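Supplementary Methods. Inverse-folding protocol.

Structures were first reduced to a discrete structure-token string of length 459. This string, shown here, constituted the complete conditioning input.
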């Protein structure tokens, strides 16, 4: 808040562990809101109190996976340098053939579907390809998946730790921190075509960068998440659709709860952050509570976030989108306001390159079944144009707030009050101040972590 530097929780965790062996661990970064997570994930402590036997420094994928599954709690895993799951032991790029020799996506498409992709067909070639896809997908999943356990902190050492092509799974656990990492989204090399997904079909991949599923208490902070070297524009076009090898960057589903996503750069991606995976999963009611603050969403196509059911607080984030044919990720909309979603937006900054004022509102929010959206203090661009309580732009009502697939009315009154659930402070107000704060603090490298203490043993 008022301080220019603060010690982050990751530093505290590492320092406490290191102090026992008289070693040094520290972290400092420009303050945005303070040392601890704010919002629904406020009580997350991760690996706090881990003894040196439960602290691991890893620089290979195999060591990362071994440390992640080690049955100790609490636990701290430090990532040193670059771990690239897209390369084999000899440094060559892994392909579908690495996991399933004989599989070919073009053969899969042509043998399993009609020429327009709208009808499934049966053939011996299709059977062979789908069998290979199943076995190959299982092999790839086992190869790239890192499954975190209860009371774990996964933290990048230094300012340039990278996880490339790794799928981080937080499934059925509690109390996890991910911090100070550059994370390049995993690619599903066996992505599947679904002719029934929309009127023209779609490609659907399985792996997120970070999956948060059926878990409670997660904090993702000061990371950079992106498609990186593998932009969607580099994928082939089959059935008149760009093949989609990516799923989400941070997806929060299946009754996950009490999550904070803060101070990250989230960029160059399509389906960015999903909260709630299905309109029919009514068991998610009362859960999926998530806070986003201090994040830079840059060149994301949609879902920042896309919400069902959850009480979601989004404040002091900077959104930058692009529209037009020349961009890799043309903006559809920042917010997806889904079934029974309860989004409270405060003091966010929205900027859309290539858009006229009349386009701003339509590219800010879509309403796939949602009926409530509340905003206070957010602004479009540097003009100071506000999103006011009646969902107007410069006092003129915008019918684009209500998407064509939404048949009901939308309430602009907040259905819940974040300040009654946790303490927080709006750190910046106005477009320029919000943008400046976020640009100066978000992403990997703004937190510097060192550790020179003893570590536990790995197989």
């Amino acid at each position: 808040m008022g301080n220019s530097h603060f010690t982050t929780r990751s530093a505290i965790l590492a320092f406490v562990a290191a102090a026992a062996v008289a070693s040094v661990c520290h972290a400092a970064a420009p303050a945005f809101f303070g040392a601890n997570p704010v919002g629904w994930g406020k009580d997350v402590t991760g690996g706090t109190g881990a003894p040196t036997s439960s602290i691991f420094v890893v620089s290979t994928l195999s060591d990362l996976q071994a440390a992640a599954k080690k049955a100790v709690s609490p636990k701290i895993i430090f990532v040193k340098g670059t771990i690239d799951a897209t390369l084999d032991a000899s440094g060559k790029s892994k392909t579908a053939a690495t996991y399933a020799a004989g599989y070919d996506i073009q053969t899969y498409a042509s043998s399993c579907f009609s020429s327009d992709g709208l009808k499934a067909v049966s053939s011996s070639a299709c059977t062979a390809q789908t069998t290979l896809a199943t076995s190959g997908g299982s092999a790839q999943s086992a190869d790239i998946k890192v499954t975190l356990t209860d009371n774990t902190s996964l933290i990048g050492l230094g300012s340039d730790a990278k996880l490339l092509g790794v799928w981080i799974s937080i499934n059925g656990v509690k109390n996890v921190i991910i911090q100070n990492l550059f994370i390049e989204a995993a690619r599903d090399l066996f992505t599947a075509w679904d002719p029934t997904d929309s009127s023209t079909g779609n490609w659907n991949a399985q792996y997120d960068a970070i999956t948060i599923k059926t878990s409670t208490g997660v904090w993702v902070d000061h990371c950079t998440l992106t498609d990186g070297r593998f932009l969607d524009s580099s994928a082939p076009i089959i059935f008149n659709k760009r093949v989609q090898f990516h799923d989400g960057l941070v997806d929060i589903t299946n009754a996950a709860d009490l999550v904070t996503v803060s101070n990250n750069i989230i960029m160059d991606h399509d389906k960015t952050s999903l909260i709630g995976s299905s309109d029919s999963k009514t068991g998610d009611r009362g859960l999926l509570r998530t806070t986003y603050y201090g994040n830079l969403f840059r060149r994301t196509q949609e879902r920042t976030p896309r919400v069902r059911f959850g009480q979601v607080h989004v404040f002091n984030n900077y959104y930058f989108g692009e529209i037009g044919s020349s961009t890799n990720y043309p903006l559809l909309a920042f917010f997806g306001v889904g079934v029974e979603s309860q989004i409270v937006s405060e003091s966010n900054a929205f900027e859309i390159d290539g858009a006229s004022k009349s386009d701003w509102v339509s590219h800010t929010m879509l309403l796939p079944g949602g009926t409530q959206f509340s905003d206070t203090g957010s602004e479009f661009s540097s003009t100071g144009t506000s999103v006011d309580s009646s969902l107007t732009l410069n006092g003129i009502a915008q019918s684009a707030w209500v998407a064509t697939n939404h048949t009901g009315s939308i309430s602009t009154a907040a259905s819940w009050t974040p300040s009654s659930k946790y303490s927080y402070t709006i750190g910046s107000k106005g477009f320029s101040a919000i943008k400046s704060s976020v640009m100066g603090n978000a992403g990997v490298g703004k937190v510097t972590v060192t550790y020179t203490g003893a570590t536990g043993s790995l197989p």
